[in-house]
Specification:
The protein is mostly helical. The protein has helices at residues 3-24, 32-46, 63-91, 107-140, 146-161, 167-186, 191-210.
């Protein structure tokens, strides 16, 4: 096999590892994220790159980036709560969302899961999906319409990564992936914007679950 085929096999294997390892290796309390984060660091370093090359630059973490992240999170929260959830409940029989029921009436559980949402949902998932996988797909897998295809495929993979949720949760994750992937490209691959946006969206969603208002604004 030539070098191009070997590199493609390697890249597909890397993506497969990042998607499957967190679900199938029973490491305690999100510690899989440390393994995967170090794995990405090693891959970047092996190619002469750093996290700065995927948008995790110190210069990118500005007040403007934070404000854009917060505003985009509120926009996406409004879309999900006032458009997506009412739409699917109108046309489909949607089972109750129970994955985070354990945080209801437990402030300690809520705070613990919010901390995880900030580090895992916000920081880790954005580094993996927007920062690494999307860039990898854009630079290695496509010649024509590379940005478009990398956004679409990354978003589908992001949705499938949430397979433990029902089909409506997977669809919402695909849509969220599209939103954050487009946001990432629109603001010149500044990963801090999508990290803040994703983290704030997850945090407010968890608070809504805690007060039993998630999807009940209509």
């Amino acid at each position: 096999m030539n070098n191009k085929i070997l590199r493609t096999i390697k890249d597909v294997s890397v993506i497969g590892f990042l998607l499957l390892f967190p679900h199938f290796v029973p490491l305690p309390f999100y510690s899989y994220a440390v393994v995967c984060f170090l794995f990405i660091w090693f891959l970047l370093r092996n190619e002469g790159n750093t996290f700065q090359d995927i948008g995790l630059s110190g210069n990118g973490f500005t007040g403007k980036a934070v404000l854009i992240g917060i505003a985009s999170a509120l926009f996406w929260l409004g879309f999900m709560q006032l458009a997506y959830i009412p739409f699917i409940k109108h046309f489909f029989v949607v089972p109750d969302y129970t994955e985070y029921n354990f945080i209801r009436k437990s402030i300690s559980n809520l705070l613990m899961v919010i901390a995880a949402a900030l580090l895992i949902g916000g920081f880790y998932e954005e580094v993996v999906f927007r920062g690494y996988i999307q860039n990898l797909l854009e630079k290695r897998f496509f010649r024509k319409f590379a940005v478009l295809w990398s956004i679409i495929i990354t978003s589908v993979l992001f949705g499938l990564y949430h397979w433990q949720q029902d089909i409506f949760g997977i669809v919402s994750a695909v849509l969220g992936g599209l939103f954050w992937s487009i946001l990432y490209k629109k603001f010149n691959n500044n990963l801090w914007i999508t990290i803040v946006s994703h983290a704030i969206f997850d945090t407010i969603s968890l608070i809504l679950i805690y007060i039993d208002k998630f999807g009940n604004w209509y």
